DNA sequence: CGCGCCCGTTCAGGCTGCCGTCAGCTTCGC
DNA sequence: GCGAAGCTGACGGCAGCCTGAACGGGCGCG
């Protein structure tokens, strides 16, 4: 399981990183939101540990941004704020869990385990969609029982569709999902990735709505 | 969403029940584990709120039993135990979340919302108009339960009517809506699109006001 | 440090089907 | 019954989409 830790306190950050590593998970640790965005553009994570007070912005806004872009990566908030209203804001912004500093490292492990089980645990985290079996936790797809390898971009795109099954997604929305914020790209990248996804997953998987966008086809 | 509340403290139980009801959810409240088992046999719940200290047994065992039987109903634990080790036990037993008494009722609402969102995704609001179900976010229309694909122009036109239900819209107004202000269209384009929409959505959907324009019909 | 491989992006050529137009017909008001 | 307004089937052009192929950058490995 890949975990992204966003925490500017170096002492706490190192302790958390070591604890997670001791649990056998892999961690990337960044201290700023822009670095977090870069990391998320490069890799996809299974869990984000997010400090709310950071040098370059409030974590709440970052989290809200994620959710409005349709990103469903589980987020656990780590923060010194212990006001009830802040905890509510965090949960309403789309956080999955909350830890108030100072917290016990073994409790952190338990919470990570809880989130991991929720997403990868029993009985079957396998989504089926027609001939496709999708394991979100393992980031793997099987088509008619045969494993289909997807690249990072293809996964990101496919996840965007899975997060909103049946919903129409415009190319602009998909670009935002794939490229965080910038990207003034005037090209047909999305079309190409859709084309490749269809080739791998079956042409019925994604439907074109001419002039409007794409949507996940019915199974 | 159906919620099962297992709590033997009558004051707290009533407060929680009322809070959930105020949020528009439906609640069944039991005070004992055997009553909980009966209720779960009769109905299936979307969420369980579980007190750990109950007259007829420890809630932890109940929760573990659920999970070993493969039940994945989300569980939020409510308890006065605030020892870190108890919280870890609860999460390791398969709880999805944890609230330590005394807790704020609005925080309870936020956590319920969080769990609900996690499990059901947030479905889009559906407008109904006679036999039509309209999902604006997904850009989809169902007629008598069957999906009706609309083209970009048709959708734009339909949206114009939905935005002003029952209001008369002249052809000139509709043309402005469909064509960004500059385009001079000297033909019966609007009539054609209205015709196509009626064919797809039912002829009663849009009414003609001769010499004046069109309006959305009564459902 | 250099090489090779893989992945994301770009480009161009071809294809699909949406949309605007028109013509002939129907409906409405008087 | 007559004219005006609206309806709808048919059709061609072209915007929008698809996809094979090539380019180039990044990364791991030797």
Defining traits:
alpha/beta; Arc Repressor Mutant, subunit A; 219 residues; Rossmann fold; DNA-binding; transcription regulation (chains A, B); homodimer; DNA-binding (chains A, B); Response regulator receiver:Transcriptional regulatory protein, C terminal (chains A, B); WalR-like (chains A, B); five-stranded parallel β-sheet
Task: Describe the structure concisely for a colleague.
Chains A, B: This is Response regulator receiver:Transcriptional regulatory protein, C terminal. With 219 residues, chain A is an alpha/beta fold.
Secondary structure category of chain A: alpha/beta
CATH topology of the largest domain in chain A: Rossmann fold
Overall outline of chain A: globular
Number of helices of chain A: 8
Helix content range of chain A: 40-55%
What is the CATH class name of the largest domain in chain A? Alpha Beta
**Neighbour order of strands in the largest sheet of chain A:** 2-1-3-6-7
CATH architecture of the largest domain in chain A: 3-Layer(aba) Sandwich
- How is the quaternary structure best described? homodimer
Q: Which whole number gives the mean pLDDT of chain A?
A: 78
N/C terminus separation of chain A = 29 Å
Question: Can you identify the CATH superfamily of the largest domain in chain A?
Answer: Response regulator
Measured by DSSP, the beta-strand proportion of chain A falls in: 15-25%
- Which regions of chain A have little confidence, pLDDT < 50, spanning 5+ residues? 120-125
Biggest interface between chains: A-B, 30 and 33 residues
- Into how many domains do the coordinates of chain A divide? 2
**What is the string of SSEs of chain A from the N terminus onward?**
EHEHEEEHEHEHEEEEHHHEE
Radius of gyration of chain A: 18 Å
Report the strand count of chain A.
13
